[in-house]
């Protein structure tokens, strides 16, 4: 028990260190490519921080545990929206860009609804449905690419008019260092998150917590630690686009790519997900959209509201598990 607790602390320290390196590298990449931090958050950062979800889901599928694979993605997405955005807003008030309200959050909601429809109609996500999700992911990347080109042209024209006045600090960061920061940061996030999840799950089993609760809470929350650490650190540094883009991009990646790719390889049976879990998956982005739309920012009290909703869901989940057992 003592060794597991020590490893939990070590894993958490590695995750936080990796998040700091990764955030610095991602921001430097955004400035060097002359694209917005939101675009980098929606693509590079979200793909990197979603590696744990992909590995856990794919390995669970290969072991004939498709419910665990889908449950991991669902739990991670619920955690991402309620806890990560909530914690980031508690750390610092976050301004919400218009594109998030009219493009990214609705797209996140769309893939969540599609996953629900695919799963409940036949109790299985078949190959063609997985291909539909994967196709949506490709369209999402294309949209992000077009936005990046537009941002780059806009920043290039504005910087050319002010040429000679200021030297861009990001230009001083060499490409090899940016790549090193991103690669080392991702590696630390994945390794630290894995150590933290494994040992936290071991402690939970010793305390008598059921496997289902471990999957929807510790496993899902643990694989979301890279997103949590990255977004909180980004919010603390004032990189709001990176903080929000990381969360929404990760959610879209989790469903459209992870579930889409896995079910395209092997059809995924979904029989043990409760209606309340589906309601949380679909309702959480709706709640975030409503809170962001009211004042075009996430205030501290709204962050507290989001985290409180997750805590209430967690209490219900633990109570349900004890009732079933």
Counting copies of identical and different chains, the oligomeric state is single chain
Reported CATH architecture of the domain at 36-153 and 235-324 = Up-down Bundle
SS-derived structural category: mainly alpha
Major sheet summary line:
2 strands, antiparallel
Stretches where pLDDT is under 50 for at least 5 consecutive residues are: 162-171
What do we call the CATH topology of the domain at 36-153 and 235-324? A middle domain of Talin 1
- How many strands in all? 4
Write down the overall geometry.
Answer: globular
- The neighbouring-strand order within the major sheet is 1-4
Rounded to the nearest angstrom, the radius of gyration is 19 Å
How many alpha or pi helices? 12
- What is the string of helix and strand elements? HHHHEHEHHHHHEHEH
Supply the key terms.
about 325 residues; mainly alpha; A middle domain of Talin 1; two-stranded antiparallel ribbon; two-stranded antiparallel sheet; 12 helices
Task: Describe this protein's structure.
The protein is an all-alpha fold and 325 residues long. The chain is 84% helix and 2% strand. It has a domain at 36-153 and 235-324: A middle domain of Talin 1 (Up-down Bundle). The protein is globular, with a radius of gyration of 19 Å.
């Amino acid at each position: 028990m003592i060794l597991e607790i020590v490893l939990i602390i070590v894993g958490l320290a590695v995750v936080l260190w990796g998040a700091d390196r990764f955030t610095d590298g991602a921001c430097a990449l955004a400035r060097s490519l002359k694209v917005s931090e939101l675009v980098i958050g929606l693509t590079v950062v979200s793909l990197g921080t979603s590696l744990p979800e992909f590995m856990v889901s794919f390995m669970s599928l290969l072991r004939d545990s498709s419910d665990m694979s889908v449950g991991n993605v669902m739990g991670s997405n619920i955690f991402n929206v309620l806890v990560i955005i909530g914690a980031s807003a508690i750390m610092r008030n976050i301004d919400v860009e218009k594109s998030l309200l009219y493009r990214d959050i609705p797209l996140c909601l769309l893939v969540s609804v599609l996953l629900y429809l695919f799963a409940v109609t036949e109790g299985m996500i078949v190959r063609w449905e997985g291909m539909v999700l994967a196709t949506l992911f490709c369209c999402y990347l294309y949209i992000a690419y077009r936005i990046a080109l537009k941002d780059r042209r806009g920043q290039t024209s504005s910087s050319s008019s002010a040429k000679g006045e200021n030297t861009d600090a990001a230009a001083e960061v060499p490409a090899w260092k940016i790549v090193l920061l991103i690669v080392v940061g991702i590696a630390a996030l994945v390794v630290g998150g894995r150590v933290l999840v494994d040992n936290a799950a071991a402690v939970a089993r010793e305390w008598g917590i059921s496997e289902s609760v471990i999957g929807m809470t510790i496993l899902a929350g643990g694989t979301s630690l890279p997103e949590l650490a990255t977004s909180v650190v980004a919010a603390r540094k004032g990189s709001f686009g990176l903080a929000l883009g990381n969360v929404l991009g990760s959610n879209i990646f989790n469903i459209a790519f992870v579930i889409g790719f896995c079910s395209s390889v092997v059809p995924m049976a979904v029989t043990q997900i409760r209606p309340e879990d589906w309601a949380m998956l679909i309702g959480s982005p709706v709640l975030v959209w409503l809170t962001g739309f009211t004042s075009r920012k996430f205030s501290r009290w709204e962050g507290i509201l989001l985290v409180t909703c997750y805590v209430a869901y967690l209490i219900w989940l633990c109570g349900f598990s004890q009732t079933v057992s």
